[in-house]
Amino acid sequence: MIIGVHHIGIMVAKRSHAPWLEHICTFGADGWCVGPNIHLKLEVSHNPIVKPTLSRPVNMPGIAHICLQSCDIDEGLARGLQAGLVPLSEPVDLGTPFRYLYAHTEDGILLELEGAPFVRDADPRYWIGHIAFVARDIEPLVGFYARALGLKASTVLRLQANARVDKVAGLKDVDLSAMWLPGLNLGLEFWQYHNPVPAPDLTQASTGLQYLCFECTDFEADCAHVVSQGGVPDTQNHLELTACKSAAFKDPEGNRFRLIAFDDADDPMAIKNLPHRDILAQVSSELI
């Protein structure tokens, strides 16, 4: 059984390029970072010229961005600016209880900042609201993750001819489809851009969001299930964790993900021991 997203792998050119992480997590050994509701695994490139010449386009296919939520987006943006983030716009109201903006890090990594002013007694740091994919074909990709993770997908939402969406994305005449998979310690969000269509030959930067890793309880059975639903076994780097098993895969669009299972369910690195693992359930309950 998949019980949640254990961590996200992030590659930066230099450790000094990631001061924004200090507003999310506590740094540990070997690049492991503990956030309110997820771990992050920070890798520093060995290539001294790895820094991208271009920031990641909002509509570029792949693992696109992570969403940093906080109660006050203006205060969150101020913290982000101090950490070197470059916003694409000021906070924008899209007609929901949240306000939104995208920003790039010094390494060109795309982040979304989201304000949830209705949340009370939240963790003072950012928490991770979701990780987003830009899909080439949204419904098959969402279907794969829904089956693999045992989650129910939302219906498809079409967004077009909306100047506020254009402003957030920093693009003109945006036409996109969106779907969500809720139910874990952070959400999975999916976009497909019908316009502007991303160029087919965009080069993935060496820095960025490398993979996501799901924690599971029955390692062999869960790996077999993922493969039966269309996951493709992949090679993996060493995770520098003991007392666990892990395996690497690619989804049907080539995005990398992993499964991890701890020998001891009470391992300090398990999701159950994160300080605010239920923050999204709190957000949902206070949103109603």
Largest β-sheet summary: 9 strands, mixed
Tally of alpha and pi helices: 5
- Helical residue percent? 10-25%
Gyration radius from CA atoms, angstroms: 18 Å
User: Rough shape?
Assistant: globular
The secondary-structure element order is: EEEEEHEEEEEHEHEEEHEEEH
Count the beta strands. 17
Query: What is the name of the CATH topology of the largest domain?
Result: 2,3-Dihydroxybiphenyl 1,2-Dioxygenase, domain 1
Second rung of CATH, namely the architecture of the largest domain:
Roll
Residue-averaged pLDDT: 92
Would you tell me the structural class of the helices and strands? alpha+beta
The CATH superfamily label of the largest domain reads: 2,3-Dihydroxybiphenyl 1,2-Dioxygenase, domain 1
Question: How much β-strand is present in the residues?
Answer: 35-45%
Termini gap: 29 Å
Structurally, how many domains make up the residues? Answer: 2
Report the top-level CATH class of the largest domain: Alpha Beta
Summary tags:
288 residues, alpha+beta, 2,3-Dihydroxybiphenyl 1,2-Dioxygenase, domain 1, 9-stranded mixed β-sheet, 8-stranded mixed β-sheet, 5 helices
What does this structure look like?
With 288 residues, this protein is of the alpha+beta class. The protein has 2 domains: 111 residues, Roll (2,3-Dihydroxybiphenyl 1,2-Dioxygenase, domain 1), CATH 3.10.180.10; 146 residues, 2,3-Dihydroxybiphenyl 1,2-Dioxygenase, domain 1 (Roll). The protein has 5 helices and 17 strands. The strands form 2 sheets. Strands 5, 6, 7, 8, 9, 10, 11, 12 and 13 form a 9-stranded mixed β-sheet that branches. Strand 12 and strand 13 form a beta hairpin. The longest helix has 12 residues. The mean pLDDT is 92.
